[in-house]
Design brief:
By secondary structure, the chain is an alpha+beta fold. It has helices at residues 25-38, 82-88; strands at 41-45, 48-52, 57-63, 66-71, 75-78, 94-98, 101-104, 108-113, 119-123.
């Protein structure tokens, strides 16, 4: 894979162009890395708006028509539906494991199948969802 870096002219917007014959795993991993670094998730805690990096989120959970993002040390309300998060972050490590939970596979120690086609995830922080 050839990599070329060019500096744009003054006033031009930064731009990333990917030219490839096939969308193989290398290209998808590159897209994933770029997307994770550029698309924050907005969370709310104590009436404060917080930009969250997807890589810092352990999982999302829907409870009573509200969606929450769980990080190492805090829980944030996210004003998106789970299906929107699932769509916005396709081609990332976020995986829907039930109707009410999306986990970040990068934060999972292991997945275990349970009944009705659902999974239980054991997270690196020792929590199970």
């Amino acid at each position: 894979m050839k990599i070329t870096i060019e500096s744009p002219s003054f006033g031009e917007e930064d731009e990333i162009i990917i030219r490839c014959h096939n969308l193989d795993d290398k290209v998808m991993n590159l897209l994933y890395a770029l997307k994770n670094e550029t698309v924050p998730i907005i969370g709310y805690m104590d009436n404060k708006l917080v930009k969250l990096s997807p890589k810092d989120i352990y999982y999302f959970e829907s409870v009573d028509n509200k969606v929450f993002a769980y990080t190492q040390n805090a829980v944030y309300e996210v004003r998106k539906k789970l299906y929107e998060i699932e769509k916005d972050f396709s081609h990332t490590d976020l995986l829907r494991i039930s109707k009410s939970v999306i986990v970040n596979l990068a934060k999972v120690s292991y997945l275990r199948p349970i009944f009705n086609g659902r999974f239980e995830a054991s997270l690196k922080n020792k929590e199970k969802v």
